[in-house]
C-alpha cells in the first residue's frame, strides 16, 4: 500500500501547473500548426476561383528604388476578382543592381525612377572626382632635393 501512495504522489505532482494548493490542469493545451493557416488560405483562393499560371520564371515587384524579386515562383491568378497570388522565396534588391536585365519590364511609372537614378549617377560621378582632388590638396607637394630625414634633423636642431 505504501508503494502505491508514493507512485500516486509522483503522478499527481507532475500534473500540477502551480505550487501546493493550486488547481490541476483539466486537459493538455493543444498548439495549432501553421498548416491550418495554409489550408484556410488555399480554400479561400479556391472560393475566389484562382487558376495556376505555369512556366513563369521570374516575378519582379517594383517599389520606389527597391525591387522584390521572386525566382521560379508559383503564380495563381483570378482575373474576375483582380487577384494575383505570387508565392515563393523573395529577394529584395536595389533597382540599379538588376537594371540591365529588367529594362524591358519597366513601365511608364518606373521610367521616372530610371531618370532619377541616371541623374544620381551623373551627380555622383563628377562629385567623386572632385573629392579625390580635394584629398590631394591636403598632402604637401614634394620639393626636389629635400628628404623627410633632412626636415626632421632641421626640426630637432
TrEMBL record:
<comment type="subunit">
    <text>Part of the nascent polypeptide-associated complex (NAC).</text>
</comment>
<protein>
    <recommendedName>
        <fullName>Nascent polypeptide-associated complex subunit beta</fullName>
    </recommendedName>
</protein>
<keyword id="KW-0805">Transcription regulation</keyword>
<dbReference type="InterPro" id="IPR002715">
    <property type="entry name" value="Nas_poly-pep-assoc_cplx_dom"/>
</dbReference>
<comment type="similarity">
    <text>Belongs to the NAC-beta family.</text>
</comment>
<feature type="region of interest" description="Disordered">
    <location>
        <begin position="1"/>
        <end position="38"/>
    </location>
</feature>
<keyword id="KW-0804">Transcription</keyword>
<dbReference type="Pfam" id="PF01849">
    <property type="entry name" value="NAC"/>
</dbReference>
<dbReference type="InterPro" id="IPR038187">
    <property type="entry name" value="NAC_A/B_dom_sf"/>
</dbReference>
<dbReference type="InterPro" id="IPR039370">
    <property type="entry name" value="BTF3"/>
</dbReference>
<feature type="region of interest" description="Disordered">
    <location>
        <begin position="120"/>
        <end position="157"/>
    </location>
</feature>
<feature type="domain" description="NAC-A/B">
    <location>
        <begin position="35"/>
        <end position="99"/>
    </location>
</feature>
<feature type="compositionally biased region" description="Basic residues">
    <location>
        <begin position="22"/>
        <end position="31"/>
    </location>
</feature>
